[in-house]
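Fold this complex.
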Amino acid sequence: MSLLDAPGATVVTAESAAPPRQGRRGRYLPYYLAISPFFLIFGVFWLYPLGYSFFVALQRWDGIGPMHFVGLENFRFLATDATFWHSILNTLLIWVMSVVPMTVLAMLIAIGLNSTIRFTGLYRIAYFVPNVTSTVAMSLVFASIFSGQFGILNWVLGLFGVDPVPWLTNPWGIRTAIAVMIIWRWVGYNAIIFLAGLQAIPDEVHEAARIDGAGPVQTFFRVTLPLLRPVLLFSVLMSAISGMQVFAESQVLVGNRGGPEEAGLTMVLYFYNQAFYYNDFGYGAAIAWGIFLVVVIFAILNWRLIQRPERRRAGEVAP
Amino acid sequence: MIWTRRGRVITYLAMTAGAVILLFPYYWLTVMASNTTADIYAYPPRLTFGGHFLANIGQVFARIDFFGSLLNTVVVAVATTLLVLLFDSLAAFTFAKYRFPGSSVLFGLLLATFVVPTQLAAIPQFAIMADLGWVGSLKALVIPAAANAFGIFWMRQYCQSALPDELLEAARMDGCGFLRTYWNIAVPVLRPALAFLGIFTFVNSWNDYLWPLVVLIDSHHVTLQVALAQLNGLYVKDYSVVMAGTLVAIVPLIVVFLFGARHFIRNITAGALKG
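Structure:
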């Protein structure tokens, strides 16, 4: 728990802070009351539901009528449900298709922001504003941009002699469109974060590299990028978390079923479908646990990717 | 870094081009919202603003209860934001500056809640809301969101760096109790952090879609996001009407964002570098 004893965490002990006339318990009461709203809300609306959702996953239940206990049948079905596996694949594909170009673009934008002196405030706002705009609203706009027959994108491509691409009727077109929306929403956010990382690197480091005869490209890949590692990892982890949750983009763009060949069916969309569209709460709860498992595995994989090079580097330093 | 004049010009051109591409969807939204559906479907497409915005928006108002859902969204976002600011800052202040039996364990527990995926709780939450009779009610959106681990964690970090112990000690000497210390000493110092958390919460609440879609089912009290999805579902053919509704739905939030943008963007990065 390094977070708990972080520097600066000096603490006023209750002994000195509380009026003496109160009893031992009463002395601490204000503190418990002060933190109680979170734990109350968390307990009632999050923790209790977690246990309850496991119970629901063992039932056949439409959410209104009586429950029928079915044991592990929902989980057994989930393990062999091709659609669920397909939704995992879609989610991962869309994540990879968005995170790779997004990270490269965000880095380029961050370098641009770092080397411009004028209008930086305006640039930052312009690049950041997609992040706070409603996903539903912009998915509607992108649905029109990507429209096969009437979309402006195909019209622009046509100006360059490219035949119309059936974006929203082709599996890869759908995934590309969703990935583009995710990139659009998050590229500025990540650029701002990378920029902060760039600005935290002392000028002397670049100066030293230059004196040692490194060119700008070499300096970037050998000096800047390794120093940005923690920031890059933060960004990848954040995008992994939000990437596993993609829902609105898919639902608005291609509907509840995920479009042709269910190419836009993400894990959360499949969950929503089964639970709240087909009212199969028992199976929906099982899917939710399946998603949880996928997220945990994915997080562990990410974590190991982070840890390994750190250990290697530590090993190099050790005698 | 040393830049040649040409390099500088290219950088500004590239940055501007990037911004134009990123902002294009907003322009295109406005173009579509101010033309007729026939113009949208025309080939080649009409690339400039038209004069049909008022007619389109009139159609929106006639077809969905736009102002009702706008009001619902504002009520939910404002109520959630105020509660989050109060509960999160109070808990953060306590965790940052006071030690009491179980405080480390409780804070550890709070951090552990980060990993709980929201959709895992959605079905039982819906069942709880049904038991409480809150399905279709705005309470179902506000109460579960009224305090969150992220805000407390982030705010606690801020408390530790911004609130010196001497200040609290001085307040204690002057006879300030816990609540008065919080309100009179901590809150004024925490104002920048409250501003960030406030905008962050407001934006997320305003844009939330999955949970409102689930819990406001078959209800006349929907939020703007759900209303937009309904407008699109029911009147797909009248695309310009849908776009007019979309445009009006995103403008308030962008205005709110622009007011606090500089401050907000600075704090986003602060969180990333510390975290």
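The radius of gyration of chain B is 24 Å.
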